[in-house]
Amino acid sequence: MNIKNLVKNYKLPHPVYVTQPTLPDLGEFKIYLEEVWESKWLTNSGKFHQVLENKLNSYLGSENCSLFCNGTMALLLALKALDLTEGEVITTPFTFPATLHVLSWNNLTPVFCDINEKTFNIDADQIEKHITEKTKAILPVHVFGYPCDVEKISELAEKHQLKVVYDAAHAFGVKLNNRPVTDWGDLSMLSFHATKHFNTLEGGALITKSPELKKKIDLLKNFGIADEENVVFPGINGKMNELQAAYGILQLEMVDNEVEKRKTITELYRENLKDVPGIGLSIDNPMVEHNYSSFPILVNEKEFGENRSTLYEELKKFNVFSRKYFYPLCSDYPCYSHLPSARKENLSIAKKVSESVLCLPLYGNLALEILDQISFIIKKIYNNRHG
Ligand SMILES: *Cc1c(COP(=O)(O)O)cnc(C)c1O
To answer: CB 3.0–4.6 Å: which of 144, 253, 310, 385 could bond 305 by disulfide?
Structure first.
C-alpha cells in the first residue's frame, strides 16, 4: 500500500498536537477572580502569590521557592543572584534556546559539553575536560524531566569551586532516590509555561536551599526595592501576578492526576512501540519518580526504513503533530555556532540524538484510542517500508 492509501484509511479525525494544557474548572477560577476583583490587589506579592509559594514549597519539598513571570526571567536572575557576571559556563547544546540566551544576557560565554546518549543530559564524565581558569559555573538541564548525573556534577563543582544552576524547566515534581531533584545545585529553575505539565499560563520559579539567596532573588525580581526609600541594586521586574498565582493554585490541585494519566499513556506507548524495529525508547530508571513531561523516541533510519524528519512529515499527513525537540542543537544557531566548543567533533552524541529524536503527543487528556492509533500508524509506516 502506498502512503496515500494509508492516510485515507487511518488519518485521525482531528489534529493531535504534541501537548495540550489541562485547564482548571472555569467556575472555580471565577471564584478566585471575584476575590481578586474585590481586593483590587493585582500583583506585588499579594495573597494568591503567597499561598502558591507556600503550597509549592510543600508540594516540591523545598523551603525557598520564589515565583516569577516566566522561567526564562527566573534563570536570568539565578545567574545574577550568584554574581555570575563574566567568564565561562559549561552547558548542553541539547536544550531550548532560553538556556543559552540567559548566558548571553549575563555576558557569560557558553561552553558546550556533549550529552549522554541514554539520558540526553549533559555527559558528566566530559565536563571536566572543558574546565579552564575562566570557568565559573555549570548549567545542566534535566531534559524531558530525566535527572542529570547530579552526584557527579556536585563533586565536580566542589572540586573546582563552581556554581551549579539547573535548568529544571521540565523537572517539576521529579524525584531521584526519593529526593526532589531541585535539592541539587545552588539554584534550580522551573518553568510554568502553558506547554509544561504544571502551568500558570506563563510563569516560573527558582528553588534554593539558602534563605539569604531567596531574599536576594526576591529583591532582584522587584527592581531591587528593599523598602519605600531604599533601592539596593539594579533589579528588574520578574514578578508573577495574582491571576497567574490563583490559576496556579488550581493547577496544583490537578497535577497529580495529570501525571497519573501521563504515566498510563507513557506505559501504553512503550508497550505498543517496544517491538517496532528502529524505534528507540528512552530509559526507564526505577530510582526516578518521573513526571512524564514528554515522550521522546529515537528513530534509527537503517532499521526503521526512513529517517526522523521523514517520519515527522508523514505523521503530519495523519493529523499527528509531533515535535523535533531538540533540533537544531543550540550550538548550530548562528549566534553560537562560531564558539570553539560548538564544533561537531565535540558534540557527536548530541548531533546524533538531535537528528533522530521525535517527541510524540503526550498530555493527560489524550484519549487512549488516539494514542493506540498513533502507535498503529507508526507500525503501518514501518510495514509500508518493509512491504
Ligand atoms: C520552557 C523552557 C524554558 C523557558 O521557560 P519559559 O517559562 O517559557 O520562559 C527554559 N528551558 C527549557 C529547557 C524549557 O523547556
So the answer is: 385
